């Protein structure tokens, strides 16, 4: 992970390097839960221990009183689950069983965590010597909340998620959206206050960045309420841990479930929706949902769920709600299976506020080019849409991965803010504003390149006449050299009996 935009506090890289060496032959997808579970266990134990010592210092004997922890949103950790006991037994044959029992004990004491924590550390295929070494790694790193490192473990968790996504490649899409993509959505939407929803929330990255945005702008986390849904059981648990580690309360429903077939928040009207749904998902069950009330703008095709996701989210927007969603570029221009008609109706309903064409190679899981759609039920510029072409942005941080920098994200957010204020100056090749009528002339295709045009070449100050004189002189010289070479070749071939 680069230092441009990812989670990087310094020691996470060292933890990753050390822990990764110990992985052995275990797949990244399996090893992920070993490491993330231990990070979570260390975090809640550290937080508990800090509060425990405060209560001991008070001298009133309340250090084992569960309520003294829960009212501060600190998980109560029973004695057999505290990290000190796990550390003492790190290199015993029973370490796997001890960790599993610790997880079970924590779940018993904290209903919010019931059924969420990994409890398979005792399985035979997990090398106990390596497991003990990983425990040592976390034991030797101070993760208590203090000073400007209070978020240190949450960022470690985030960093680990990014590294596992890098290792898992194509399979990472179901749980991880690159931080720079999420930050772009958040910086443009500005979710200060209200209900925030993600119908395919993965490991919770949208929620984490939303809460960071509120905190960084001196807001109050109590002013936002978070709702989500995730179909993959393992990813749903990962999301619960990711949010718990940051003290974020969220309603993710009673368990994992399919958003299309069992909407866990059927009456929700969200103020902000942020999502990165699966790209171009086929076989999503359209045949059984033909008459669904969510399809206000048309029945989505069975072969592609892009407009099913989009309409599901629009349905869940409040009267003043707005949303940002990552979709494959095909959604901008496809005319097949009724998609063009659905897109036309959404545009004519004046919902599309902004489209951002993103640069390639942002995702570990796919090379499919993507765009960000911003939908707004209460646009500040009615009848107009902002188009931004950001395809040239980003820095390559590995041979195959690109990231948007903090400054570039700020440029995109500022352009949107200026558009809302009516002060945006269009820039050829980068941004343009189009009316619904102008979009109609392009057959309701939303590809930004159609509207922003081609970037003007830089003027080097050389007068046109001088440029043409120089170029024609250069061309004449090249033609002369070409003629001389032709004659030389003819002479060589003639010398050996070949004529052209």
Protein described:
It contains 17 helices and 11 strands. It is globular. It is of the alpha/beta class and 500 residues long. The chain folds into 3 domains: 11-168, Ferritin, CATH 1.20.1260; 175-452, Vaccinia Virus protein VP39 (Rossmann fold), CATH 3.40.50.150; 462-500, no CATH class.
Q: How much helix, percentage-wise, in residues?
A: 40-55%
User: In what order do the strands lie side by side in the largest sheet?
Assistant: 3-2-1-4-5-7-6-8-11
What is the arithmetic mean of pLDDT?
A: 87
In one word, what is the shape? Answer: globular
Give the SSE string: HHHHHHHHEHEHEEHEHHEEEEEHEHHH
Classified by CATH, the class of the largest domain is Alpha Beta
**Can you name the CATH architecture of the largest domain?**
3-Layer(aba) Sandwich
Q: Please give the radius of gyration in angstroms.
A: 28 Å
Distance between the termini: 60 Å
The CATH superfamily of the largest domain is known as Vaccinia Virus protein VP39
Q: Tell me what portion of residues adopts beta-strand conformation.
A: 5-15%
The CATH topology of the largest domain, please? Rossmann fold
- Characterize the main sheet: 9 strands, mixed
Based on helices, strands and strand pairing, what is the structural class?
alpha/beta
Would you count the extended β strands for me?
A: 11
How many separate domains?
3
Given the structure, what is the number of helices? 17
């Amino acid at each position: 992970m680069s230092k441009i935009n990812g989670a990087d506090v310094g020691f996470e890289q060292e933890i990753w390097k050390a822990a990764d060496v110990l992985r052995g032959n275990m797949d990244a997808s399996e090893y992920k839960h070993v490491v993330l579970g231990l990070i979570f266990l260390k975090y809640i134990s550290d937080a508990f221990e800090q509060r425990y010592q405060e209560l001991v210092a008070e001298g009133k004997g309340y250090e084992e009183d569960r309520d003294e922890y829960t009212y501060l949103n600190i998980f109560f950790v029973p004695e057999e689950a505290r990290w000190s006991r796990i550390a003492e037994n790190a290199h015993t044959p029973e370490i796997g069983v001890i960790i599993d029992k610790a997880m079970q004990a924590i779940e018993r004491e904290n209903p919010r965590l019931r059924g969420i924590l990994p409890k398979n550390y005792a399985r035979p295929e997990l090398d106990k010597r390596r497991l003990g070494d990983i425990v040592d790694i976390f034991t030797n790193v101070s993760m208590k909340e203090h000073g400007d490192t209070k978020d240190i473990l949450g960022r470690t968790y985030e960093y680990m998620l990014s590294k596992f996504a890098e290792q898992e490649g194509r399979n990472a899409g179901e749980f991880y959206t690159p931080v720079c993509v999420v930050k772009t959505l958040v910086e443009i939407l500005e979710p200060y206050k209200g209900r925030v929803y993600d119908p395919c929330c993965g490991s919770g990255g949208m929620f984490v960045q939303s809460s960071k945005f509120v905190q960084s702008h001196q807001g109050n986390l109590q002013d936002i309420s978070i709702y989500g849904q995730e179909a993959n059981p393992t990813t749903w648990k990962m999301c619960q841990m990711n949010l718990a580690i940051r003290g974020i309360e969220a309603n993710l429903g009673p368990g994992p479930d399919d958003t299309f077939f069992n909407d866990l928040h059927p009456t929700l009207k969200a103020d902000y929706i942020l999502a990165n749904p699966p790209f171009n998902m086929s076989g999503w069950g359209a045949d059984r949902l033909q008459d669904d009330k969510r399809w206000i703008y048309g029945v989505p095709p069975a072969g592609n769920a892009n407009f099913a996701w989009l309409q599901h989210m629009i349905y869940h927007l409040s009267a003043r709600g707005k949303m940002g969603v990552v979709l494959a570029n095909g959604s901008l221009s496809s005319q097949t299976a009724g998609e063009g008609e659905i897109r036309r109706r959404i545009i004519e309903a004046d919902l599309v506020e902004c489209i951002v064409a993103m640069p390639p190679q942002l995702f570990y899981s796919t090379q499919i080019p993507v765009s960000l759609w911003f939908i707004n039920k209460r646009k500040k510029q009615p009848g107009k849409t902002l188009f931004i072409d950001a395809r040239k942005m980003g820095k390559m941080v590995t041979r195959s991965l690109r990231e948007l920098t903090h400054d570039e994200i700020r440029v995109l957010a500022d352009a949107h803010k200026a558009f809302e204020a009516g002060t945006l100056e269009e820039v050829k090749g980068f941004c343009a504003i189009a009316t619904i009528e102008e979009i109609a002339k392009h057959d309701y295709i939303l590809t930004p390149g159609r509207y922003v045009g081609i970037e003007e070449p830089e003027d080097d100050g050389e007068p046109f006449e001088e440029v043409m004189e120089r170029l024609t002189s250069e061309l004449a010289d090249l033609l002369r050299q070409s003629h001389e070479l032709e004659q030389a070749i003819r002479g060589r071939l003639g010398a050996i009996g070949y004529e052209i």
